[in-house]
Amino acid sequence: MSVVNMPIEYLVPHPQNPRKDLGNLEELTASIKENGIYQNLTVIPVNEAVPGEEPKYMVVIGHRRLEAAKRAGLQEVPCAIVRGMSETRQLQTMLLENMQRSDLTVYEQAQGFQQLLDFGMDIEDISQQSGFSKRTIRRRLEIAKLDQNKLKELSSTRHLSLKEFDELAKIKNMEARNEVMEKIGTNDFALAVKRAMDKEKLADNMPVFLADMERLGIKKFPDSANKYSSKYRRIGSLDLYEYEVTKDKIPKKTEGLYYEASYPRNVEFYVKETKKAKIIKKSAKELEKEKRIKEAWFKVDAMAATHYELRKAFVENLRGTAKQREAVYMGAYSLIVLRSIAYMSCGDISKEAGVDDKYFDPRRDEKAVKLAYESYDNTQQCIEVIYKLFNDNEKEFYANGYRAGYPEYKFNPRLEAMYHWLTKLGYQMSSEEKLIAAGTHEIFQQNIFEGGNK
After folding, report:
1. 287 occurs within a structural domain
2. Which of 114, 359, 379, 448 gives 20 to 30 Å between its CA and that of 332?
């Protein structure tokens, strides 16, 4: 391979160059005009052996440099002539060079890596020749599995991060993944991913649960029976999303036991009431209302648990920085106000600070005082401790606790302060969370459960 200064008129762009848009060339043109070209172009001969014709060479590497050199007024550019390069190798080389660009969108990166695979390279080859880690390449190839038309459209209208695509890849089913992709780049994305993953958990756990029910002789609640009547008594429940963890909650005595798993994540167990108690007769309308009320509270519980898991995951994945110190102070201030004015109980500070002394007293415990001073400049640790002191849990919600009636909106000072603080740290509330916090979510509209239209 020889490097020669070649007249610009001898050079032609490669017709299959994957980079159709050369981007902004002003800075590169100015640099070439002042300093010349430091890095040679790579070209292949087109008609070297044809006598009497002006020689032509096709550019494989250096399309931007060639165009900038033309604009800078150069007559010649340094070129390395490569002979015997196959068409496949030409395309691989152009793609590998293209993948080094810093301005590529995630869509373009995914397309590029997939094309390299299509041209016969494997992940090991791509990694060695491009400099990208195998993990990075695999991540981009997951993106290439998505609906490319939809991905291209979203890439042109939204700012999409690789972190979001990593979250999207946690969804196993491609149809569900493409559906959730509609929310990428919006505040509803994290919630959509969580719901899709929960649905897959349910699909995985349900067959195992049903097999256990058959093995234990626990029957499904008869369709003809009404578990909301006083003839049956609820004696336990478990979480189907976390079945492996919660299956020990299956009642030990299984004789005459029924299960009901008609709601996402919740399974309830019932037995026939054996006590000689007065049977309260209820009309079909009353029983139907009780059923609707209970269904509404099931939805409340499911949303509360899901939103808690989103908040918890955000804090666990957050990397606190010095710039967030002001937001950290705001969280501590909120706790002080809530504890003093709203009579909110906070977590045991001795436990959260890692002090196990049963008789902990911050005025006397030197270990705790020392820890407080050492942790003061650790923003991440401050965030984690403050979050734990908020006592966040899966039951926190903006609803009254009276479960004999439909859920009604009730202001929750703990949640309000916590959301305000977390959003300052970068948390994005979903549309559902915002509606609930404002009291305008349909769960608070009693008439929908009564079939009204008001």
Report:
1. no
2. 359
